[in-house]
Design brief:
This protein is α/β, with parallel strands linked by helices and about 375 residues long. Helix content is about 20%, strand content about 15%. It is built from 8 helices and 16 strands.
Length: about 375
């Protein structure tokens, strides 16, 4: 009994210590006028946000999905990156549009004289804890302090691989507009970002940053950081509409019918940045998968596809190179143009380079062998 009590006390201490360590990074709930605005959203129902097409996922399959991961779920050799600093961005893109993929869903977009950064994650782990959780495979190709001046930071939702406390805390004094879906501003404000720099948007709402329109677009996903706050804040994608160019970022999403509306209302897009990794047949409505990403690219009327949400963290059981292999195979069948830069490499979509296979040749399952098919698309 004495040993049991000691074990219980030790467990309690560990749990309390862990929660205390993660508490600030978990963020803050929405209150007051912020909550009142959320409750007026058409997407708010019964105390939380809902997708028009509810997520239908295999709960047990999700639990067991990681029990038999690919032997290549993470790289065994260093991932080749292109490092740099702010000097690279002193010369604007000749075409007026340039994208620099920094790994996972972090992209620096230079568009018609503006700079926009999507879902910045510079921390070592996608986690509220510095010592546990998915660890990045390589350092940020461009240090945070070496980024050029950023006009807008857009956040798609509050999952840890997209909303990073360490990164946002380091950015809190930047002269930057932080654009987030409804409710997510509560996290930023609790981390010291001035309310005057936070813009919260519902789906289809827009804000203007200089001469650039930033439109919050629907997505099919979820939110939550604590385990008891599921869907308490909205999730979204974004359209960047400039005088000469247009870009689309999907955020995390399953396939959904309104992607055609995004293309009709805001496209065509010179470049689309659509998630392609961290999929499994147990959660086909949660993450879109490679083949459906190519379908989404066509639905939103994209010209050049930059696959994102891969190449930095192991968050699913598939091999780490499988997403890009499957995207390229699917795009080849339909004639879509894909760019696949190394992390940190800058590319102008108007002159897409020939795909350089900088990743190793590893076994991977095809779309026919392991199809990802979102539900309720009819």
């Amino acid at each position: 009994m004495r040993v049991a009590r000691w074990i219980g006390a030790l467990t309690a201490i560990v749990v309390v210590g862990t929660v205390a360590d993660a508490w600030t990074a978990m963020g803050h709930r929405a209150e007051g006028s912020r909550l009142a605005r959320m409750e007026r959203s058409p997407e708010w129902k019964d105390g939380h946000f809902e997708n028009p097409q509810p997520l239908i996922n295999d709960a047990w399959g999700s639990v067991t999905a990681m029990s038999h991961p690919s032997p290549d779920v993470s790289p065994k050799q260093p991932v080749p990156t292109v490092t740099g600093n702010r000097q690279r961005f002193e010369t604007p893109p000749a075409s007026g549009l340039r994208v620099t993929w920094l790994g996972h869903s972090s992209v620096l977009i230079e568009i018609d004289g503006h700079r926009v950064l999507t879902d910045p994650v510079w921390s070592d782990r996608a986690s509220p804890l510095g010592w546990a959780g998915p660890r990045r495979w390589y350092p940020p190709p461009i240090p945070l302090g070496e980024l050029p001046a950023i006009d807008a930071v857009v956040i798609s939702h509050d999952h840890y691989d997209h909303l990073d406390y360490g990164t946002l805390s380091a950015m809190k004094d930047w002269n930057t507009t932080f654009i987030v879906p409804l409710g997510v501003g509560a996290h930023l404000a609790s981390w010291g970002v001035p309310e005057a720099h936070i813009v919260e948007l519902d789906w289809w709402e827009r804000t203007r940053v200089g001469g650039l329109d930033v439109v919050c677009t629907p997505a099919r996903h979820a939110s939550g950081r604590t385990g008891i706050d599921k869907d308490a804040k909205l999730w979204a994608g974004y359209a960047l509409v400039g005088p000469q160019h247009r870009a689309y970022y999907s955020g995390d999403t399953g396939l959904f019918p309104a992607m055609k509306d995004i293309g009709a209302r805001l496209g065509p897009f010179d470049v689309t940045m659509i998630e392609v990794g961290q999929y499994h047949k147990a959660w086909p409505d949660w993450h879109i998968g490679p083949e459906q990403a190519v379908m989404a690219h066509r639905m939103v009327r994209g010209r050049v596809l930059l696959p994102v949400h891969w190449g930095l963290f192991a968050l699913a059981a598939h091999g780490w190179t499988e997403p890009i292999e499957r995207v390229l195979a699917a795009a080849a069948q339909t004639g879509e143009t894909v760019i696949a830069p190394r992390p940190g490499q800058s590319v102008e979509p108007s002159a897409p380079p020939v795909v350089e296979r900088w990743w190793p040749e590893l076994p991977w399952r095809t779309g026919a062998q392991d199809p990802i098919v979102s539900t309720q698309m009819n």
